[in-house]
Amino acid sequence: MSDSELTALVIDDAREKMAKAVDHVRTEFSAVRTGRATPPSSRRSSSTTTARWCPSADRRVQRARRRLLVISPYDKGSLGAIEKAITSSDLGISPTNDGTVIRLSFPPLTEERRKSLVKVVRHKAEEGRVAVRNLRRASRHELDAMEKAGDLSSDELERVEKDLDKITQEQVAAIDGVLAHKERELLEV
User: What is the pTM of this model?
Assistant: First the structure.
């Protein structure tokens, strides 16, 4: 393999892993409740009728109002199991079962709780930034090893490190953008 092919492999691997780190941050952010009713927040609970959440298979989830989520199971006999699963989950919400649908009412967040959630989100964003930087460091170690082995010239190493820094900055900026959006969402009353 030539220098450019080897460095391209390292850069592509770093880019892919950094993108996964950004996706992980997005997933972590989606677990933080904002006081709005969103179907993904109900996906964290699983009922005893199915091994995992399958909205198209056994129930339909609708957002009726900003803070109200309605779950309509296709099998009305599973209402009790779904209600029990939601009650035992970490959602912190008490479901209302009327015999045909389950309603989840999300209470508004207090200002103090909003600020504490912003701190949590900022911490998760910083963890994501650290993960991206660690991936950059690991890629640099690979490149340094390639240079020591004679597979890479010092000029090529310098060029590739600049590319790696640019990719790192892009991924950190993506995390910062997701963080800013989540903060606005949390602080919205």
Answer: 0.71
Give bridge partners of residue 97 from the DSSP assignment: 102
Q: Residue 36: how many CA atoms within 13 Å on its side-chain side?
A: 16
C-alpha closest to that of 60 among 74, 48, 49, 79: 74
* pLDDT tens digits, 69-88: 888 888 888 888 888 888 88
Please choose, from the candidates 48, 36, 63, the residue with its C-alpha nearest in 3D space to the C-alpha of residue 72.
63
Q: Given phi > 0 = left and psi -120 to 50 = alpha, else beta, which region is 92?
A: left
Residue 82: HSE in the Cβ half-sphere, 13 Å Cα cutoff: 29
Asked if 26 and 67 count as a contact pair (C-beta separation under 8 A), the reply is no
